[in-house]
Structure formats: structure tokens, C-alpha cells
User: What shape does this take?
Amino acid sequence: MMFNWPLISVDFNNLDQNILMKIPHTDCRLRPDQKALEYGERKMAGDEKHKLEQAQRKRRKHREVNNIEYKPKWFELYEDKDSGESSWGYKGGYWETRFEYYRRNCKASKRKLNRKGI
Assistant: This one.
């Protein structure tokens, strides 16, 4: 049961196997804090979000201490032509990489199953 969510949100967050196979593992609908909030578990949602934020701070601190520049894999900073402001935009490659990963792993899984006579 969703907690204080409009019907459209309930529908949108209802993820079946077909959708789960197509969305990125970073989709916010898969986050534990989001799931807890959906079910009205506010304390648990807050705790989960705090853990997530602490992990992010720890990674950022590690990069700062070790002088490691953070460079997003799928996004790049660009200047908006209309406003002149900096903004982040998808630079491509995610879906192709994901497809190739699943193509290789599915073939490997089939080979393992075939060796077992399945």
C-alpha cells in the first residue's frame, strides 16, 4: 500500500520484471529510502537516505584527500546556448554499454546452462 501517493505515482513506481530489465540500476525508484517512503516507513526512509548521503560524502572526501577528479561517465557539463549557464547533459553511451554487457552475460549464462544439460 502506497502512503499518501497519487494514483499516477503508485502506477509509475509499480515495477514489473519487464521494466526492471530495462531501467538503469541507478533509477531512483529502486532506492531503499524511496521504497520505504512509498510504504509510509518515514523513519526507515530517513535512516536509509542518511546512509546514502554519508556514503556519498565518504566517497567525495576520499577523492578530495587523494586529489582524484570526479568525472561522470554518462554526463558532461555544457554551456546552455540560450541562457549561457552551465548545465549537465547526457553524453550518450549508457544504453549501448548496457546492451553489450547483457549480451555478453546472457551468452555466458546460456553456455553454463548448456554444459549442465539444461
Q: What stands out?
A: Residues 7-70 form one domain. Residues 42-65 form the longest helix (24 residues). The mean pLDDT is 83.
